[in-house]
Amino acid sequence: MNDSAELLKQLRIERDKPGQGTPPGRQLLYPLLIAALVLAIIAAAWFLLRREPAPEVRTAQAVPLASGPAAASVLDASGYVVARRMATVSAKVTGRVQEVLIEEGMQVAEGQVLARLDPVDADAQRALAQSQLAAARSQIESVQAQLVDAEASASRLERLAAGQLVSRAQYDQAVAQRDSLRAQLATARRNAQVAADQLRIADHGVDNTIVRAPFSGVVIAKAAQPGEIVSPLATGGFTRTGIGTIVDMDSLEVEVDVGEAYIGRVKAKMPVEATLNAYPDWKIPAEVVATIPTADRGKATVKVRIALKVKDPRIVPDMGVTVSFLEQAPEAGDEQPRAGVRVPSGALVERDGRTVAFVLGDDDRVRLRQVQAVPSTASTRDVTSGLAPGELVVLDPPQDLADGDLVKVAGGG
């Protein structure tokens, strides 16, 4: 037991003896490293807290200019998309709706069945007219049979009267009977014709219970449901006047109100650039169709019709639209290549008397560029120098935005 205790004492480390454990220099190094790390964290936090957040901006891409000289806007106006062919379809007769075969947004062709009314009354009228026609034709057959016998009798009595075998009075009576039946036959034939005409009218009555599309288009409103009463003469109450409304999308155009003081600038066939309020980046080519020769004395405006040169399902009636009346397009032989780019008007600002733009770099920092620009339309400007196609420019830059500032693109794009 004593030997074991002695062995354990020999294995124990004496930490208080000089030359053993951690050296004194290293003991001072650890606190210094910890203090330096804490100071670095505090400095980084102070820098992040004191730094102003990057402003959020919107950007647009500079697009190359098309060939030919730019057509400047001479007048801007606003209006709405309208349809030249639009109809609220109704039945010709008053009746109860049996079924409706349309829904909003549905494409329909000319002559397509849209709805049916209850045909009970119309079918009864047709059946009555058909019976009257059959009765009239039967009357014709009866009179024809009697007329054949009367004509034979008159011929026979005529020979007998010539031989003085019968009296002249008997012969005259047979002739009168024959002529009477001939008149009855003519009347029966006219009655049959009238009955046939009545049957055709009854057929139209049955057909009037079927509502068809007057032209090809798109259904924009469904006005009736099965079981409702519809009438083309309804003026109120619970009676519907129509089944639905159809618009011919190929007839869409723009109507704008132009002030009387500027109507002299608008000419027929004048090129126009239309911009829908719903799609502000989409420039639609158009041209002036006509100026309506009347003025609105209340608004002191004149209405102008504008034809759209693009057919697109995104264009729907009653959309708001802004139009720019452009100068007349150049002749085909006058077109020359153009250098420069086109940007939104909001990308160019005035700083220290210079026209500048802020270009976004790959490091999310902006670079100040001095540019030379000319007006293009109300919403765009043509830059002849200072920008390259494809570069991203900041739209409506903040007043305090400077060269080299870090920015954040709205929407992450």
Automatic annotation (TrEMBL):
| Pfam families noted in UniProt | Beta-barrel_RND_2, BSH_RND, RND-MFP_C
Q: Which GO terms describe its molecular function?
A: efflux transmembrane transporter activity
Major site of localization recorded for this protein: other
* Superkingdom of origin organism: Bacteria
**Coiled-coil regions listed in the entry:** 126-198
TM ranges: 28-49
UniProt subcellular location: Cell envelope
**Keywords for this protein:** Coiled coil, Membrane, Transmembrane, Transmembrane helix, Transport
The record, for InterPro entries, names:
Beta-barrel_RND_2, MdtA-like_BSH, MdtA-like_C, RND_pump_MFP
What are the residue boundaries of the CusB-like beta-barrel domain, all occurrences included?
254-327
Please tell me one Gene Ontology term that the record gives under cellular component.
Answer: efflux pump complex
Residues in domain Multidrug resistance protein MdtA-like barrel-sandwich hybrid? Answer: 85-231
Q: Where is the Multidrug resistance protein MdtA-like C-terminal permuted SH3 domain?
A: 343-396
Q: Which family does it belong to?
A: Belongs to the membrane fusion protein (MFP) (TC 8.A.1) family.
User: What's the protein called, per UniProt?
Assistant: RND family efflux transporter MFP subunit
Q: Which organism is it from?
A: Pseudoxanthomonas taiwanensis J19
